[in-house]
Design a protein that fits this description.
Blueprint (H helix, E strand, L loop, with lengths): L6 E4 L3 H12 L8 E4 L7 H5 L3 E3 L2 H7 L2 E4 L6 H8 L9 E4 L6 H8 L4 E6 L9 E7 L4 H12 L2 E5 L5 H9 L1 H18 L4 H22 L3 H8 L5 H11 L2 H16 L9
Parallel strand pairs: 1-2, 1-4, 2-3, 4-5, 5-6, 7-8
Antiparallel strand pairs: 6-7
Helix pairs in contact: 7-12, 8-9
The structure holds NADPH dihydro-nicotinamide-adenine-dinucleotide phosphate and (2S)-3,4-dihydro-2H-pyrrole-2-carboxylic acid.
Family: Belongs to the pyrroline-5-carboxylate reductase family.
Subcellular location: Cytoplasm
Main location: cytoplasm
């Protein structure tokens, strides 16, 4: 982004603020180029103090912005689109939606404007530059796809996928953060049962999980290849692994991800009361 461009984040909650922090931390833009909105604007006071623009008036934010990020809940989207409809100009703004379960076409149909819409599915690790972000569009130009990918590449890794896979990407990557966090938490609880203080157990489990992920990412190897290096014959690793599998470890993760993806496809429309 150049110094004259602004990005509006409509719906500055968990993911909207994580995105804002990530973009500023990566030096993509200054806080004063980011316009944060939410209805309870007082909750954004600490961001206003840091130099971000804040407002509860979405139309004001859209008018100033080159890139408009939609980051409300699926059930809050229709009201938001009704509000910004009069100020969306197809030739001016690029819409980026991080909203789960809402297609580019759903958004254009509601706005009745042929604006470019690019979907991005990041996760909360975006705040520390470690997101896995999936990008999809049905009408974005290559130039704008490249722009959006370049934004998300500075705050993690992005890939472009077909739009029909976005609900699957939501489950695997966006919800996935929670699934891996819960497994680290479970490992730390096991660690406490076998003798470590809770804070030590959590740190040890988290660093071990990071090492496991980096083995795959840095060596481009397969999990089973790395597991084979850990499991000594008649050893304690295979004993522990098999006990976990007898209790449904892999099956629970697979079923959870499938259920999550199904739910992601059912989130919209379901307007907030
Ligand atoms: N959390 C995550 O890890 C991820 C979430 N997503 C998607 O991002 C979206 C947001 O999720 P999340 O950040 O968790 O949800 P949050 O509830 O934390 O954030 C939504 C924000 O939108 C604001 N909001 C609601 N209505 C309006 C409105 N009309 N105008 C302006 N702001 C509004 C709310 O504040 P207020 O009530 O004050 O208006 C709230 O701060 C969802 O669609 C979700 O599917 C995608 C990837 C990852
Ligand atoms: O739980 C949710 O619905 C959102 C979508 C992805 C992450 N959080």
């Amino acid at each position: 982004m150049n110094a004259q461009q602004n990005i509006a984040i409509l719906g500055s909650g968990n993911i909207g603020l994580s995105l804002a922090k990530g973009l500023v931390a990566a030096n993509i833009c200054k806080p004063n180029q980011v316009i944060l909105t939410r209805r309870n604007v007082a909750a954004l006071d600490e961001y206003a103090e840091q130099g971000y623009q804040t407002t509860s008036v979405n139309t004001k934010a859209v008018k100033k912005a080159d890139i408009v990020v939609l980051a409300v809940l699926p059930q809050q989207l229709n009201k938001l689109l009704d509000e910004i409809k009069p100020v969306i100009k197809s030739e001016k703004q690029l819409l980026v939606s991080v909203i789960s379960g809402v297609s580019c076409e759903d958004i254009r149909k509601h706005l009745e404007v042929n604006v470019q819409v690019i979907r991005a599915m990041p996760n909360t690790a975006i705040a520390i530059g470690q997101s896995m972000t999936c990008i999809a569009t049905d009408n974005g130009t290559q130039k704008n796809i490249n722009l959006v990918r370049s934004l998300f590449d500075t705050v993690g890794v992005s890939i472009q996928i077909n739009e029909e896979l976005m609900t699957s990407a939501t489950a695997l990557c966006a919800c996935g953060i929670a699934f891996f966090l819960r497994s680290i938490r479970a490992a730390s609880q096991g660690g406490t049962e076998i003798g470590f203080h809770a804070h030590d157990a959590l740190r040890m489990a988290a660093q071990t999980a990071k090492g496991a992920a980096d083995l795959l990412l840095q060596l481009s190897s397969h999990p089973e290849q790395e597991i084979d290096k850990v499991t000594s014959p008649k050893g304690c690793t295979i004993a522990g692994l098999n006990e976990m599998e007898h209790n449904g470890f892999s099956s629970a993760m697979i079923k959870g991800i499938k259920f999550s993806a199904q739910k992601a496809g059912e989130l919209y429309p379901n307007d907030e009361a």
